[in-house]
C-alpha cells in the first residue's frame, strides 16, 4: 500500500474491502455494544458469516417472527435485513434483559436459601451446645450430690458407732458404779498382771506398783472423783492424777494417752487413759501410785486390800 495520502489518489483494493466490511454492520452494533447472551452475540456476525447467523437459534426465531408479520407471497427478508431491523434489535435487548433479570433473581434466591440454611444450622448447633452444657452441669450436680450423700452416710455411721461405743462404755461404768455405788471402788484395769511391788530399788524408791499391760489397754478410775492433773512428766512419761471423794490421789504413769481432762468429774469404772511405755520404762505397763490425802505415796497393797480391790 502506498504511503501517499493526497486527495487525487484512488483507494486501493484492500482499503475498499476494509471500508465495505465496516459499512456492512449497523451502527448499533459498534465495538462499544455487547449483548450478554450467546444468542445476541450472533447478531454481530459479518456478511461473510450470514449463513451461520441464519442457522443459529436466534436467527431462526427472528426469521419466524418476521415471517409471522410478512404477508403470504411476500419475499422473506434476508439475515442482513433482520440484523439491521430496530425491532429485532430491541427484542434481542429485551430478551437479554429478561435473561439477566432471571439470572439475577435465581442468584438472589440461591443466596437467600444458602443464608437460611446457614442460619438453621447455626440455630441447631446452638441448641446442641446448650443441651450439652446442661447435661454436663446436671452430671456435675449429680456427682456433687452423690458425694454429699456419701459423706452424710459416713458421718451418720460414725456418729452411730460413737454413740454405740459411748453407750457401751456408759453401761459398763454404770454397771460398775451401780454394783459398788458412787463411793465404791473398782480395779484400775481388767485382767491385771502384777509385776513389781512398792519399795526401794537400785538406790531409789519405787513409789507404786506395776502391772503388765499391752500398749492401749484401757485404764479406769477406781471411784468417784475429779481429774486434777494430766500430761507429760519427767520419769513418768504421760501421767494422770485423780482425786477421789475421800481425798486419796491415784497416779497412773507411763501412759500412751489420756482420755479425760483436768477438772473432769469421773465415776467408778470410767476409762480415763490408755496404758503405754513412755518415760523411764522398760516395757509396756501401768505404774500406779496411791497418795492418801494427796500426801506422800504409800504401799498400795494394803490400801487396795482395805477397799476390796485385788
From TrEMBL:
Gene Ontology molecular function terms on file: metalloendopeptidase activity
Skewed-composition ranges (Low complexity): 156-180
Comp. bias (Polar residues): 111-122
InterPro entries in alphabetical order: Cell_wall_metabolism_enzyme, Dup_hybrid_motif, M23ase_b-sheet_dom
Limits of the M23ase beta-sheet core domain: 205-300
Alphabetized PANTHER family for the sequence: MUREIN HYDROLASE ACTIVATOR ENVC, PEPTIDASE-RELATED
Protein name from the UniProt record: M23ase beta-sheet core domain-containing protein
Organism lineage: Bacteria, Bacillati, Actinomycetota, Actinomycetes, Micrococcales
